[in-house]
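Much of what follows relies on a compact textual record of a protein's fold. A record is reproduced here so that you can trace the correspondence yourselves:

. . .
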Amino acid sequence: MIRTRQFKLGPMDNFSYLLWNDDTREAVVIDPAWQPEKLAEFMEKEKLSLQCVLLTHAHPDHVNGVPFFTAANKDLPVYLHEADHFMLPSKPPVLKHVTDGEKLEAGSLKITVLHTPGHTPGSVCYQAGGGVYTGDTLFVGQCGRVDLPGSSAEALYDSFVRLSGLPDGAAVYPGHSYNGDKSTFGVQKEYNLYLKLARAGRREEFLKAVR
């Protein structure tokens, strides 16, 4: 059984996540930030074995906890799309790049990579265990900012068109607690303006709404 735990951390209401196999106790951490020791304490309590770190993108508020884990284990793989490597404040000892459609295997955990550029050129979502970890691409009722260096409203539209095709029952686990902590794609397709516009192919309205 695959389980997940959401941690709200830091001054920007970031979410970090732990995903693990309940049988093997193998785990991955997604976007460790601000208070990584809280993730470590939970893993120690639950006797989880950390296999790797997954990054949805490289903005500082999503990666500032990475050195905590790589200092403890210099062989720990850190996964990030190559288009965002340049934004990392420091390069982890074992940095691996992910590609669209790639099937990652972290011990017994199987994770699918969806390249969803827009907020950053290398933004990705990770699909695993019935959930999609959307980083700063998709929030509950909102979308990621496109007014930052390297961001693109046009790319975000294409990413939202793709996300609108995901199953209604898939959980949405966003990168921040903006307007809500968790949802499903079915709910977001009905109530998220940006996902509704992308799903309907209304590109110009989407671009106007996000700017």
About this structure: The helical segments are 36-46, 60-63, 66-72, 153-163, 185-191, 193-199, 203-210. The domain at 2-144+168-184 is CATH 3.60.15.10 (Metallo-beta-lactamase; Chain A). The longest helix spans residues 36-46. The CA atoms of residues 30 and 84 lie 16 Å apart.
